[in-house]
Write a structure and sequence with these properties.
The protein is mainly alpha-helical. 62% of the residues lie in helices and 4% in strands.
């Protein structure tokens, strides 16, 4: 029997190949155990290492922890920031009266596409057509346990409503909302938010490209903290625009930790829906739509209630779920109904 078998059994709750390999690498290094190179091949497909046969299956692409992938991740962030700020900064400076209006300053809306452009560009260069097909196919991937639809649809509405009720109760004033008087606008607003207000422009980049590569190197919690901070500061030019919606109503010192807390929740859902970008697109949409429907930021201290509620729930997720991957049990075997089950998929073969 392979000397690695007890170690594999100990960590068999991990499901995604990219995390499994990095986890075993860290554990072997910690225990000063050498591991064969063939183990890496086994973890990314079906193979044998001594007397251990390992099978993995995942919807998210397996990302190896290499210097090349790290450089590509840095390049992704650089392209996303440069593209976005190329349009957002002139728009902001123009609206501040620092520079005159020009054709470029009127194209600020294009800046939101930075993460999408970065993800498509790098995927096309390094993974060609097959990589692009795989990336966009994840946007229609619904092969995850049905109960996660409740989190996707209801998580952020519930949190925003709670923060809204706390603000209204303590301040004694109810801010007006167009949805309260015209609820029919929710239907067109949903698609407007999905395609024009962040989810479509951002999720193929943040969660489609960056998050798998971060989690190949770091734990789910560390990856969320890194990505959340980067995602937050990516928005900085929006804070320069006078009277710019939520960015005008939220101090940047609370915006950054709020986005980090939200990112932890995004990663939690992402990992439990097997890297489905459909879940991320809808989760981001319900997040933004909830802020529009229940204008908690129109209250005096609503931004603090949002920060508090998001932070508490993010802390609960971190405590209740394994911070290494934000899952309790792990597997990616589809059951008879086609839904993915969270069981171990490590099997010992006969010698």
């Amino acid at each position: 029997m392979s000397p690695l078998y007890p170690l594999l059994l100990q960590i068999k709750s991990v499901c995604h190949g990219q995390w499994l390999f990095s986890l075993i690498s860290r554990e072997c290094h910690k225990r000063k155990i050498s591991y064969p190179e063939t183990l890496k091949q086994a973890l990314y497909g079906q193979g044998e290492t001594g007397s251990v046969t390992i099978k993995t299956q995942t919807m998210a692409p397996p990302i190896q922890t290499t210097t090349i992938e790290s450089k590509r991740l840095v390049t992704f962030f650089l392209i996303a920031f440069i593209f976005t700020w190329l349009f957002w900064m002139p728009d902001a400076l123009s609206k501040m009266g620092i520079i005159p209006a020009s054709p470029l300053t009127g194209l600020g809306f294009l800046g939101a596409f930075g993460p999408l452009i970065a993800a498509i560009t790098l995927t096309a260069i390094h993974e060609k057509k097959a990589g692009l097909v795989a990336l966009f196919r994840r946007a229609i991937d619904h092969h995850f346990k049905k109960q996660w639809w409740f989190s996707i649809i209801l998580l952020f509405p519930a949190l925003v409503i709670l923060a809204f009720l706390l603000a209204v109760t303590t301040e004694g004033a109810v801010p007006s909302s167009q949805v309260f008087s015209e609820p029919w606008i929710l239907f067109p607003a949903f698609f407007s938010v999905l395609f024009l207000s962040g989810p479509f422009e951002e999720e193929f980049g943040w969660r489609g490209y960056a998050l798998p590569r971060l989690q190949a190197k770091f734990s789910a919690l560390s990856s969320s903290l890194i990505l959340g901070f980067i995602w937050a500061i990516w928005h900085i030019p929006q804070f320069l625009i006078p009277n710019n919606g939520m960015f005008y109503k939220t101090p940047i010192w609370t915006f950054i930790p709020t986005v980090i807390a939200a990112t932890i929740l995004f990663t939690w859902v992402y990992n439990n829906t097997h890297g489905s970008l459909l879940s991320m697109l809808l989760l981001h949409t319900t997040f933004n739509l909830s802020m529009f429907t229940f204008p908690v930021l129109d209250t005096n201290f609503g931004f603090l209630y949002v920060l508090g509620v998001f932070s508490i729930v993010a802390l609960l997720v971190t405590v209740m779920f394994n911070p290494l991957e934000f899952r309790r049990n792990a597997s990616s075997n589809p059951d008879e109904s086609g839904q993915y089950q969270h069981d171990s998929n490590l099997h010992e073969s006969t010698t």
